[in-house]
Amino acid sequence: MIHLLRGAFVIARRDFAATVLSKAFIFFLLGPIFPLLLGGVFGGIGARVASQTEQPVVAVVSSAQDYSLISASRQRIADTMPDSMVVQIAHYAPEPDLAAQQKKLLASRSPPVRAVLTGGLADPHLTGSVRSDAQAVAQLRLILADAKAAPAEPPELPVTATATSSGSVAKDRALTGQIGQMLLFFLTLLLSGMVMSQLIEEKSNKIIEVIAAAVPIDSLFIGKLFAMLAASVAGIVVWISAGALLIQLINTGGLRNLPDPAVGWPAFLALGVVYFAMNYLLLGSIFLMIGAQASTVREVQTLSMPATFAQVIVFGFAATAVAQPNSTEALVAAVFPLSSPLVMLARAAQQPELWPHAVALAWQAVWVFFILRLGAKLFRRTVLKSGPRAKWWKFSRA
Fold first, then answer.
1. Do both 349 and 210 map to the same domain?
2. Distances in whole angstroms, Cα of residue 120 to Cα of each of 66, 90, 91
3. Buried-most residue among 149, 266, 308, 346 (CB within 10 A)?
4. 217-to-212, 221, 280, 374 alpha-carbon distances in Å
5. Would you call 78 exposed, middle or buried from its count of C-beta atoms within 10 A (0-12, 13-18, 19+)?
6. Contacts of 197 (CB under 8 A, 6+ apart)
7. Are strands 113-118 and 89-92 parallel, antiparallel or unpaired?
8. Are 113 and 130 in contact (CB under 8 A)?
9. Which of 330, 225, 320, 240 is nearest to 282 (CA)?
10. What is the spatial distance between Cα 219 and Cα 223, in angstroms, rounded to a whole number?
11. What is the DSSP string of 199-245?
């Protein structure tokens, strides 16, 4: 056992130094900047296009008096929600040939008309490409009913603002849990594939056979996995520090203005690092086993695609636990080893108890040990194999 750990430490130190002390590691640290810049640029372009695009409207063909009541009713509804979510209306004076006017308005492009409302408040009728159960029709019914009722001015409602409430705290903590889950998922997805590319490079250069002659294959497997974990943690520390500094520079409140997790920021960040390590060891072992089966980069891409899609499915399964952390689905996702780190990190943002995390970490550690042993066994059988590849049904006899 001591010989195994000593060999793993030697391999981990070698791979960690080769990764972190290289010039390419600087570009690796700068990697997240480019997706953020592209996301900001394309997001700004999309928002600009959306703001400049004219929204379809409902043409109201009525008298000026009726339209005034309809417009005032629409505004009262728009005061309770974003204006873009309320049906848009435009006034047109009635013409002698009402059918021709409807046809002309429906063919109009500036502004684009979705439907035409005729008859005023006395006998309203809607014509256009809308269904009777559509949201726009339901809003128009509400607007017309409110306009006919001629409501009085709403009463004054004194408001006493408090710093927090149970509803706002639950919503904010759910948001923190979702953000933590997404970061944990994307970081693991981004970083767990590093071990495959390095393994393929060493297999193609026959370096892996020289290393395997000096240390046990189990030590080689465990050392490579923990070396990439250490390099990933070093990168995450740099990214978190830079992000916290940026938040502090932009917003003087810093983390105090972000939704606070239930366990507190120190414990939440510590659990985030631990759960990332568990998630990385689980998924990194799988990717390292995939890399051991492949001989070329093309084979790696072919074999890793199902594993990547499986990660997305696991993330979707874990994301369902954020809304109801004590539901049956959430408990099943917390027990399932591949989704357990994601679910428990979100739970840390929503529930203040710490003992479930101790149980979850012990459970995840058992599965990490099991998958490491399984991965090392498969790694030992495949990494030094030469000649024709055995069939999968004969693999147990290899």
1. yes
2. 6, 13, 11
3. 346
4. 6, 6, 20, 12
5. middle
6. 291, 297, 300
7. unpaired
8. no
9. 225
10. 6
11. HHHHHHTTHHHHHHHHS-HHHHHHHHHHHHHHHHHHHHHHHHHHHHH
Mean pLDDT of 317-345: 88
Give the whole-angstrom CA distance, residue 372 versus residue 195.
14
Q: 89: helix, coil or strand? A: strand
First to last CA, the chain: 25
Answer yes or no: is 72 within a domain: yes
Confirm if 89 and 58 have CB atoms less than 8 A apart.
yes
Q: Are 121 and 144 in contact (CB under 8 A)?
A: yes
Residues 215 and 15: beta-carbon distance below 8 Å: no
Yes or no: say if 283 and 312 are a contact pair by the CB < 8 Å rule.
Answer: no
As for how many domains the chain has, the answer is 2
Helix, strand, or coil (residue 62):
coil
Cis peptide upstream of residue 111 (ω within 30 degrees of 0): yes
pLDDT computed for residue 250 by the predictor: 59
Q: Please name the residues in contact with 181: beta carbons below 8 A apart, sequence gap of 6 or more.
A: 315, 318, 319, 322, 342, 345, 346
What is the distance of C-alpha 215 from the center of its chain? 40
Task: Return d(Cα 346, Cα 177) in angstroms, integer.
Answer: 4
Better pLDDT: 199 or 94:
94
Does the predicted TM-score (pTM) go above 0.90?
no
User: Residue 163: inside a domain, yes or no?
Assistant: no
32 inside domain:
no
- What range does the domain containing 114 cover? 56-149
236, 187 Cβ separation under 8 angstroms: yes
Residues 197, 65 within the same domain: no
E-strand ranges in the chain read: 57-61, 89-92, 113-118, 125-128
Radius of gyration of the chain (CA): 30
Least confident of 30-34, 117-121, 284-288: 30-34
Amino acid at position 178, single letter: Q
